[in-house]
Amino acid sequence: MSRLFASVRARATLAATLVVAVALVAAGTAVLLSLRSNLLGEAGTQAERSARDVATSLAVGTRYTELNLDDDDRPVQVVDEAGTLVAASEDLERITGTGVDAVTPQPSASPSDDGDDGDDDDDSGESLEAGEIGEPATVGDGTATVDGDTEDYRFVTVPVETRRGDQLTVYAGAPLSAEHGAVNTALTVMLIGFPLLLAVVAWVTWLVTRRALRPVEGIRREMAAITASEDLARRVPVPGTHDEVARLATTTNQTLAALESSVERQRRFVADASHELRSPIASLRTQLEVAAAHPELLDLDGAVEDTVRLQRLAADLLLLARLDAGERPADARVDLAALAREAAEGRTGVSVRGDAAVNVAGSRGQLGRVLANLLDNAQRHARSAVEVTVRRDGEAAVVAVTDDGEGVPAADRERIFERFVRLDAARSRDDGGAGLGLAIARDVAVRHGGTLTVHDAPAGGALFELRLPGERA
Questions:
Q1: How many structural domains is the chain composed of?
Q2: Cα(416)–Cα(452) distance, rounded to whole angstroms?
Q3: What CATH number corresponds to the domain at position 421?
Q4: Less Cβ crowding at N or C end of the chain, within 10 Å?
């Protein structure tokens, strides 16, 4: 069960069902309250109509015994100002809710019992004025037993003043059986219909989410297969829905492509590093074996040169490994102008010019390595002179290294920054290096938040431009 509710589909189905359930309960409650209010209002209107009819009869002088109180489903009480019941519906056996529990009228004078007044009025030829009927008011709900049947009623009261000046109160009730029946019917329908509707909603949501998440399951299975087979050339299926799942599949494939490229680059790097290390190691071993057999043939200078080359190559590989591992450069203050003069010191044909102090934040050792690699590359390709210019360009610090060689073809201006790349295949490893200098220089520049690009020099040759963020005040 825990695994069931742990699935996205189960959680989505549960959430949708709960939301619909809350909405149905709220809507059902509103409907029931509205229905009950309307039916109670209708019952009150009916009770008011009955009370007004009786009050009108009393107002015009109708005797208590002549009142029409025969409506079996609408109990009526007439009470005088002393609280005495003077008239009531026939067969009224019990009543609550009006404040007058009496059901048997007490003997009392009728509104028209004064015969003399009536005769005098008739003899004079003047008509008697009708009494006044007051505003009706809802008493509330109660019960009444009429002819053995007990029901709930809504009672309304209407005050009336007869033409003789008697103050009477008429209580009339209207049955609430229709209201109770309608509300109970609606409640029964809701209690039966809502669970069925929720079951339909849950079933539909389960089917829809299964259909929607089917591509996700396909992606999961393919990723599991890729992990098991270690075949990074495989790709997950991309659904044609153009939705979030499709974008997820596309992003996953892009990640796999980047991972495949990274792994392939690492494999190529290891292979190239092994190849580059093999030559000096083999040469050094050969010289040592020859020296062991024939000491007089030992080429000491060559052995030292191979050892130095091997040492430099190992240092380059170690630096690249640290850069690939994401090592953050130091946050020291470095003067590029002074660093450029230091890197050019002792080099033939190299001149440095520029601003007195151009400061940046970074690793002095790594930035010095960049300048040294750029100068090595420039001297390797220059005919006679190399010029280093250090300047400010807005908030950036710029170091430009220019040589008067043949320059770099436009098609190869990005390729030369790849590892173990030499444009001149005929150049010997001793003269051309291992092809790591420019790759290291660009990696260091990027780690320092800068760029390293190559262009044509104004006077011919190559122009390498190192651009770094200037030191903030």
A1: 3
A2: 12
A3: 3.30.565.10
A4: C
| pLDDT computed for residue 331 by the predictor | 79
Residue 334's domain spans which residues?
329-469
Q: Which of 299, 323, 347 is the last residue of a domain?
A: 323
Instruction: Tell me how far apart the alpha carbons of residues 415 and 407 are, in angstroms, rounded to a whole number.
Output: 14
The answer to whether residues 121 and 130 touch, using CB atoms and an 8 Å cutoff, is no
- For position 270, which CATH number holds? 1.10.287.130
Phi, psi angles (nearest 5°) of residue 371: -65, -40
Instruction: Tell how far CA 468 is from the center of its chain.
Output: 38
Which residue in this structure is represented by tokens 């080099």? 347
**Cβ–Cβ under 8 Å, residues 59 and 160:** yes
- Following CA atoms 273, 277, 278, 279 in sequence, which dihedral angle do they give, to the nearest 10 degrees? 120
User: Is 17 strand, coil or helix?
Assistant: helix
- Determine the 3-state secondary structure of 253 from DSSP: helix
Confidence of residue 71 (pLDDT cuts 50, 70, 90): low
pTM listed for this prediction: 0.52
Q: What are phi and psi of 246, to 5 degrees?
A: -65, -40
Q: Would you state the structure tokens that stand for residue 222, as one six-digit string?
A: 């393919």
- pLDDT for 429: 46
What are the residues facing 403 on neighbouring strands? Answer: 386
Last residue within a domain, chosen from 272, 305, 323? 323
Q: Which helix (H) or strand (E) holds 231?
A: none
Which tokens hold the place of 213? 């998440």
